[in-house]
Specification:
The chain has about 190 residues and is α/β, with parallel strands linked by helices. It is built from eight helices and ten strands. β6, α2 and β7 form a beta-alpha-beta unit. α5 packs parallel to α6. It is globular and about 65 Å long.
Length: about 190
């Protein structure tokens, strides 16, 4: 059964042919592959037009499960647009997350750590990430101008993305933690 989300696209089941033989890429031996179905996605015209404005999107790899992470990446491969992959704090701190990211090749990598600490600690963190060959890294603007300038200076080819306010915070939350501005005014002020 197809599932259509208007303006977004359609998920559909693609039947794989009956049991067939294939070559095991590791051993080279012939194996039999059972019949199975796969879920596929077809983007709507509206979504394609929207994405073609930028020709680049980022897909959140919001899991600590390496099999799911690999599946997200493998199912999103395309030459039609540039796709980057965002890995958050939970993935990077998972048992095998950092190693997984270090082995990715020819991918746009966005590490969403939202760094916010002393200048020296942030500098050390950025330097420690350089071996991963990441393209983007998030830091909190609230860490201060001195920290932001220092991070930019050592970041090399890593593009630094400033985070103004967490999307989970509302005006009440901001007041509780000592801010006297609304979310909108704080974001505008920090931008």
């Amino acid at each position: 059964k197809n599932v259509e989300l208007r303006g977004f696209g359609t998920f559909f089941v693609k039947e794989i042919k009956e049991k067939h033989s294939a070559r095991n890429p590791k051993t080279g031996e012939m194996i039999y592959v059972p019949k199975k179905n796969k879920v596929r996605f077809r983007a709507s015209k509206k979504l394609k037009e929207f994405l073609n404005q930028w020709k680049k999107i980022f897909i959140a790899v919001d899991t600590t499960d390496l099999k799911k992470a690999k599946k997200i990446i493998n199912q999103s491969l395309t030459k039609k647009i540039k796709i980057g992959y965002k890995f958050g704090l939970e993935f990077m701190n998972s048992k095998k997350g950092r190693n997984f990211v270090s082995r990715l090749r020819n991918k746009i990598i966005f590490v969403d750590l939202k760094l916010n600490d002393t200048v020296n600690t942030m500098l050390s963190a950025v330097k420690a990430l350089k071996d991963l060959r990441i393209n983007y890294l998030t830091v909190h603007i609230s860490s201060g101008l001195k920290a932001l300038r220092a991070v930019k200076k050592v970041s090399g080819s890593i593009k630094i993305v400033g985070v103004s306010t967490l999307t989970s915070l509302d005006d009440t939350d901001l007041k509780l933690i000592g801010y006297n501005k609304s979310v909108k005014k704080l974001v505008t002020h920090q931008a």
